[in-house]
Amino acid sequence: MSNIISKAALEARKARYQPGCRVELVSMNDPYTKLKPGDRGTVRSVDDIGTVFVSWDNGSGLGVAYGADEIKLLPPTMTEKIKEQILAIRATGATNMFDAQTVQRIAFDSGYYELVDYIETDVKAYVRFILTGESL
After folding, report:
1. Could you give the strand order of the β-sheet that contains 52-56, starting from the edge strand earlier in sequence?
2. Distances from the Cα of 15 to the Cαs of 21, 52, 73, 114, 120, in angstroms?
3. pLDDT of res. 20
4. Residues 86, 57 share a domain
5. Mind listing the pLDDT tens digit for each residue in 22-71?
6. Does residue 101 have a pLDDT over 70?
7. From the centroid of its chain, how far is CA 91?
8. pLDDT for the residue 24
9. Which domain, by its residues, includes 57?
10. Does residue 1 have a pLDDT over 60?
11. Mean pLDDT value across the chain
């Protein structure tokens, strides 16, 4: 496989590996790395030649080279999904985010059923997240 990335493939790679998404290493063509298949990390960026820069959980910052190395996208955890839903509702400006009942209604109308359930079962943690930004 050629290591030169087309414009279309680059745009697709940037769309797929958004900053903040989680990935898992499948293979890496670097005999000197301590990374091994199964290692996980968080994407920081994708450069103009298709290298995906990852903050690996083991502390490494080694990039994943287009055409040489392989990673796979991990599905978001439930906590990440709920956080994304909260931020999506906040971005609409439709309500005061401390009005948990209205947020819950908007979440339901938007199909964010995980957030609806989260507010129902742990409204204090929801309010703490809105107030402080602490993890859910």
Report:
1. 52-56, 40-46, 22-27, 70-73
2. 11, 11, 12, 24, 33
3. 85
4. no
5. 999 999 999 999 999 999 999 999 999 999 999 999 999 999 999 999 99
6. yes
7. 17
8. 97
9. 7-73
10. no
11. 93
What pairs with residue 40 in β-bridges?
24
- Output the pTM of the full model: 0.65
- Written as one letter, the residue type at 135 is S
**Residues 127 and 95 grouped into a single domain:** yes
User: Hey, is 90 helix, strand or coil?
Assistant: helix
pLDDT at site 2: 59
Taking the CA atoms of residue 38, residue 11, residue 82 and residue 78 in that order, the dihedral angle to the nearest 10 degrees is: -20
Tokens linked to 12:
């697709």
Tokens standing for residue 130: 């809105």
Residue 48 shares a structural domain with residue 89: no
Structure tokens at 43: 């994407």
Copy the structure tokens of residue 124.
């204090």
Separation in Å, CA 57 to CA 43, 90, 118: 11, 29, 27
Kindly state the helix (H) or strand (E) to which residue 130 belongs, with its residue range.
helix 123-132
Taking the CB of residue 107, how many other CB atoms lie within 10 A of it?
A: 23
